[in-house]
Write a structure and sequence with these properties.
The complex is a heterodimer of chains A (232) and B (324). Chain A is elongated and about 60 Å long. Chain A is α+β, with helices and mostly antiparallel strands. Chain A is built from five helices and 13 strands. In chain A, strand 3 and strand 4 form a beta hairpin. Chain A folds into two domains: 81 residues, Gyrase A, domain 2 (2-Layer Sandwich); 132 residues, Cyclophilin-like (Cyclophilin, Beta Barrel). Chain A is 23% helix and 28% strand. Chain B has two domains: 168 residues, no CATH class; 111 residues, Cyclophilin-like (Cyclophilin, Beta Barrel). In chain B, helix 1 packs parallel to helix 5. The longest helix of chain B is centred in the last third of the chain and has 29 residues. The chains are: A alpha+beta (232), B alpha+beta (324).
């Protein structure tokens, strides 16, 4: 596969590889595959790479790069990454962690969403739990997963006035994305439920349960099941 | 050795070197707003540079020093008083037990740093002691310091009297880190070409003021509005400290030490890392000007900055060793 991309600097110690500017599963696959290849074959001085929807940021320590680069650290990193991208295996990758996440579908925005779509809340639940979602990226808050793609029947825009405090564990929808709030935070996603699992636990290392590239399946639980599983 | 917060500044946290390697979980590097002042205050008391220091911003504060200690206060826009006697910033100072330290706000800066020999005891989280307010970890219980909080130093010190040590670092050397104060040098960034030609010019010729809607995550700017050639949505993509984003209303926001790891607004410029400390030291209402520079120029500025810091560290440690 011939990849289309650009490499630019984010600052003196970070570059960004942009494959596109859209939410697209195939492009996100390339991002995550490059992220994994870079983890397996790092260059000296690499700190980490950070996958996003259609781009990968690469962070490094300038002082630890090979001294061979004559002019600028950018030329070294750029040529290393170009070489790596040319060695990306073709096709979509298969390896994906599959993670099941229980949800009590009692979100504050669920009744209004059902009303607006002329669906029963049970139908919204069955649509939300009917397909696996991929974690495209983490961002916004420590451990916040951006997942998709949500079925068009229940896709819903962000709230015009964000809530000042969304409780930790809340499961929401924003456009074709679905996400989980790892911490209590202000937020504008439409809340449909909450998970009893701590998807972010600061005392663990790594503290985040989910990673870009994971496949998530939501399943509905009752209040009693939620109480039994509750980690908060 | 320990201290008690009598009156915190508006923002008072324990900061340290950056937390590296956790951005992929959405955890930013964090660290000091003015890493030069933080490092130098550490050097002055014999530390390596990235040990935890108290960062005090925007307003005056009072701290009771309960035991003998070797401290240093650095930064811009503050005066240091020990039991009501004025002492210089950017100096190592011996302090006797039960001394009231006051950092009084004056014009010309935003952040002060208080370092102690051995560093302050702080919670290490994922390889750094710096506070992460979003995850409520690191530093002092992951939060800002409040009245009556006690902070301990890692080591003890015996002071014969309260007084400055007989050496310091040269003012011209210090000024190199902060001048010209209002000029912020920027490299083009990922979406700079989204800007209209006239907006690109306005960016480097206009006068921008730091807005009162500014905090450790970002500084908003008041000033001429900038426009993109055509309206484009950006899908969320990584950002970095120093990135300047264009908001939908035409205003700019500069991402600071506690910024998110990803963002969805066009990245129209990236502040040279060497200019981040002086940028951070601007108070709301103060004016700044942007100047476009190349990546190579920014690299050279950073290299020079790091060389100067390394020299400073060496001289401070040498002076301290001569006193033993």
């Amino acid at each position: 596969m011939k990849d289309q991309y650009t490499i630019s600097f984010l600052n003196e110690e970070a570059v960004l590889i942009s494959f596109a500017n859209k939410i697209d599963c195939e492009i996100n696959d390339r991002v995550i595959e490059l992220h994994r290849l870079l983890e397996q074959t790092p260059f000296p001085g690499l700190i980490e790479s950070v996958p996003a929807y259609a781009s990968l940021a690469v962070y490094f320590n300038r002082s630890e790069l090979p001294k061979a680069s004559p002019l600028s650290v950018f030329s070294f990193v750029e040529s290393f990454l170009k070489n790596l991208i040319s060695r990306l295996p073709a096709g979509t990758f298969a390896e994906r962690r599959k993670i099941k996440i229980p949800v009590l579908y009692d979100g504050e925005d669920l009744p209004a969403l059902a009303d607006q779509r002329q669906l029963k809340t049970e139908e919204i639940i069955s649509i939300h739990t009917s397909v696996p979602y991929r974690v495209f990226m983490l961002g916004f808050l420590p451990g916040f997963p951006y997942m998709g793609m949500v079925d068009a029947r229940i896709a819903a825009p962000r709230k015009i006035t964000p809530r000042t405090c969304v409780p930790a564990g809340s499961v929401g929808i924003a456009g074709f994305q679905t996400g989980i709030y790892p911490q209590a935070s202000p937020g504008g996603w439409q809340l449909i439920g909450r998970t009893p699992l701590k998807i972010f636990d600061a005392i663990k290392n790594p503290p985040g349960m989910l990673m870009a590239g994971d496949e998530i399946i939501f399943f509905a639980v009752s209040q009693n099941e939620f109480n039994a599983l509750n980690e908060y | 050795m320990s201290i008690k917060i009598i009156k915190p500044a508006m923002i008072t946290t324990l900061v340290a070197g950056p937390r590296k390697g956790y951005r992929r979980w959405g955890i930013g590097a964090g660290g000091a707003m003015d890493m030069v002042a933080m490092k130098v205050s550490n050097f002055l008391v014999g530390n390596e540079g990235d040990q935890a220091a108290l960062e005090l911003g925007y307003s005056s504060s009072q701290i009771l020093i309960l035991h003998d200690s070797l401290i240093s206060a650095s930064g811009k826009g503050f005066e240091l008083y020990l039991n009501d006697k004025l002492f210089p910033l950017w100096h190592p100072v011996k302090v006797k037990a039960n001394t009231l330290l006051r950092l009084t706000k004056t014009p010309g800066g935003t952040w002060a740093y208080l370092a102690v020999q051995g560093g302050w005891k702080a919670e290490d989280w994922l390889g750094s002691c710096t506070t992460n307010s979003a995850a409520r970890k690191g530093g002092y219980l992951g939060r800002m310091l409040q009245t009556n909080d006690m902070v301990e130093a890692e080591t003890n010190y015996l002071a014969d009297e309260t007084g400055s040590l007989p050496w310091s670092i040269s003012v011209p050397l210090l000024n190199q880190f902060y001048s010209p104060f209002n000029e912020i040098r920027c490299m083009p960034s990922i979406e700079t070409d989204w800007l209209s030609e006239s907006s690109k010019q306005v960016f480097s010729s206009g006068e921008f003021g730091v807005s009162s809607q500014s905090n450790r995550m970002g500084y908003r700017l008041n000033g001429p509005h900038l426009f993109v050639k055509e309206k484009n949505e950006l899908v969320s993509s990584p950002v970095e400290v120093g990135i300047i984003q264009l908001l939908p209303d035409g205003n700019l926001v500069m991402l600071m030490a506690d910024s998110q790891t990803t963002g969805g607004y066009p990245r129209i410029a990236s502040v040279a890392q060497a200019d981040l400390p002086k940028l951070a030291q601007h108070l709301p209402g103060e004016k700044i000007y942007f100047k476009w520079i190349s990546f190579l120029e920014a690299e050279n500025l950073l290299q020079d900055r790091d060389t100067r810091l390394a020299e400073l560290k060496h001289s401070c440690h040498l002076q301290l060793s001569l006193m033993r």
